[in-house]
Amino acid sequence: MALALYFHPLASFCWKVLIALYENDTAFTPHIVDLLNERERAAFLKISPFGKFPVIHDDERGHTVLESTIIIDYLARRFPGPTALLPEDPDRALSARYWDRFYDFYVHEPMQKVVADRRRDPSTRDPFGVEQAKAQLETSYAIIEREMAGKIWALGDELSLADCSALPALYYGDRVHPIGAHTVTAAYLERLLARPSVSRVLREATPYFHLFPEETPKT
Ligand SMILES: N[C@@H](CCC(=O)N[C@@H](CS)C(=O)NCC(=O)O)C(=O)O
User: In the chain, what is the straight-line distance between the N-terminal and C-terminal CA atoms, in Å?
Assistant: First the structure.
């Protein structure tokens, strides 16, 4: 098959690309990478120098593409389908790129910070950094609350790259710092969850959810 995806079904940045692939029914060969396995990790580092997924490899063109946003950009041009991941109109495309950056930098990254902290040895935890990350999530939720009022998807009525980015950021964001009273944001997350592409991603992640670190109760 022309396209290969290196990923893990639980990994939030991989969800971005899986949603994009499933939206357009793009055929690909899945390669699940277990980074805890020394041999698999060493082989993967040859493809992805920081050991980060997702990565795609396009056999026909001999292209390896890293970084979820760049991968979706590549998929939009190389394997276009009914969901225009990057709109034709340059202003709308710019908006999709902006909201992709917004969700990655201001929701996804602080969410990852909280999750990474839970995985650490308690002696090396960073409570101040976690507080800062949660404050960032709170600020971002308030911005989304205003931005999404009256909208279905990030650009209005058509799903795009920006929504692929929003789903994993908000899904896991809600688990580490509940969206709570931000009802517009919560409703946007519900709409995303109802999308068949997203249901499929969640279904495939379910066998791995026990690996997600829940908050340790304070003693
Ligand atoms: N900026 C990268 C971030 C990728 C990333 O952080 N991936 C995580 C999984 S969600 C990862 O590979 N973590 C493994 C590690 O850092 O060892 C992208 O958008 O693709």
Answer: 52
Closest ligand 1 atom, residue 11 Cα? 10
Question: Going by CA atoms, what residue is nearest to atom 1 of ligand 1?
Answer: 67
Q: Residue 123: pLDDT above 90?
A: yes
CA of 66 to the centre of ligand 1 (A): 10
pTM of the model: 0.97
Residues 79-93: b if buried by 16+ CB within 10 A, e if exposed: beeebbbbbeeeebb
Average pLDDT over residues 157-178: 98
User: Do residues 177 and 108 make contact, with C-beta atoms less than 8 angstroms apart?
Assistant: no
